[in-house]
From TrEMBL:
PANTHER family assigned: D,D-DIPEPTIDE TRANSPORT ATP-BINDING PROTEIN DDPF-RELATED, TRANSPORT ATP-BINDING PROTEIN
Molecular function terms, GO-annotated: ATP binding; ATP hydrolysis activity
Record organism: Krasilnikovia cinnamomea
Residue ranges occupied by any ABC transporter domain in the UniProt entry: 6-256
Name of the featured protein: Peptide/nickel transport system ATP-binding protein
SUPFAM superfamilies: P-loop containing nucleoside triphosphate hydrolases
Pfam families, per database record: ABC_tran, oligo_HPY
Keywords: ATP-binding, Nucleotide-binding, Transport
GO biological process: peptide transport; transmembrane transport
Family: Belongs to the ABC transporter superfamily.
Length: 345
């Protein structure tokens, strides 16, 4: 898993804010504002962060559903940042997306067979045994009945619809799949089934995943590495076990402390260790200078307001564990802002 399949450098996506009759631009929402990432072939890279941090926008940039404002996207060594629609067609065969909402990502007027066969027809991929047979095999692969070929999306449950979305993404046998919160709209028991299905498919087809989620427990189960985003930036990235055992960025520490603990015997201790952040998330229209987390950080000092910390390995960490913080948290350090015993998480 040493070869990088996808690399992004300085990636940006700014959505313009216009005003008046002539749509004069008066500002921009900096959804993604300069991220550097590499996705290794065969791995699962988890991307986590609270709502509005830009992780879903980043996923749409990786798949080139959105045109980047700045930066560079490289896939298998080829720059795909600003390709035309026609030039993107071969890229679409190798990179697919599973969308968050299984209820809105499937066209209600089309049958399941039509939905899953659409990528094959658009890419003009020959199917020796016929398109219907190929679609039925895909349905069986994701745990659905081949007889569902002629049914419509409204006849399925949420979990079944998400399986249809997975089958559509697999139709072209891609190398990279970006899964944008694929289980967040599903019941907990169904979430486990879908996550296990993705795991099995990865082993069978040698897939590479970018798994976007806000559920840290799910990310821990499925990911090899984890990137943490805050307000359009990656603030920490590390191997899964290293990140969960020793988070370095104060924001990551706060996120980890918010993970619900199912064991009642450990719940009181978890509540005592809960880090409560003060203040609101700054606006992506006008983010703070320097470190973007400094307005909510208990370790912020003067340098945090003037210099943006680079995403680099900190003292004592391996090269794979990178943190964008001037004063990273060290193991055993006392953390301010912890809630008192019995406080609500």
């Amino acid at each position: 898993m040493s070869e990088n399949l996808l690399e992004v450098t300085g990636l940006q996506k700014h959505f313009p804010i216009t005003k008046g009759l002539f749509k004069r631009q008066v500002g921009a929402v900096r959804a993604v504002d300069g991220i550097d990432l590499a996705v290794r072939a065969g791995e699962t890279l988890g991307v986590v962060g609270e709502s509005g941090c830009g992780k879903s926008t980043a996923g749409r940039l990786f798949t080139r559903i959105l045109e980047p404002t700045g930066g560079r996207i490289t896939f298998e060594g080829r720059d795909v940042s600003h390709l035309s629609t026609a030039a993107l067609r071969p890229f679409r065969r190798d990179v697919q997306m599973i969308f968050q909402d299984p209820y809105s990502s499937l066209n209600p007027r089309h049958t399941v067979g039509s939905i899953i066969s659409a990528p094959l027809q658009i890419q003009k991929i020959p199917t020796p045994q016929g398109t219907k047979k190929a679609v039925q095999e895909l349905l069986e692969l994701v745990g659905l009945n081949p007889e569902h070929y002629n049914r419509y999306p409204h006849e399925f449950s949420g979990g079944q619809r998400q399986r249809i979305g997975i089958a559509r993404a697999l139709a072209l046998r891609p190398k990279l799949i970006v899964a944008d919160e694929p289980v967040s709209a599903l019941d907990v028991s169904i979430q486990a089934q879908v996550v296990n299905l993705l795991d099995d498919l990865q082993s069978e087809f040698d897939l590479t995943y970018v798994f976007i989620a806000h559920d840290l427990s799910v990310v821990r189960h499925i990911s090899d590495r984890v990137a943490v985003m805050y307000l359009g930036k990656v603030v920490e990235i590390a191997e899964r076990d290293a990140l969960y055992a020793s988070p370095r960025h104060p924001y990551t520490v706060a996120l980890m402390s918010a993970v619900p603990v199912p064991d009642p015997s450990r719940r009181d201790r978890a509540q005592r260790n809960r880090v409560l952040l003060t203040g609101d998330v700054p606006s992506p229209i006008n983010p703070p200078s320097g470190c973007r987390f400094r307005t909510r950080c208990w370790k912020a000092q003067e340098i945090c307001a003037t210099e943006e910390p680079p995403l680099v390995p900190r003292a004592g960490d391996p090269a794979s564990h990178q943190t964008a913080c001037h004063f990273p948290v060290v193991e055993g350090e006392a953390v301010q802002g912890r809630s008192p015993a019995g406080a609500s998480a």
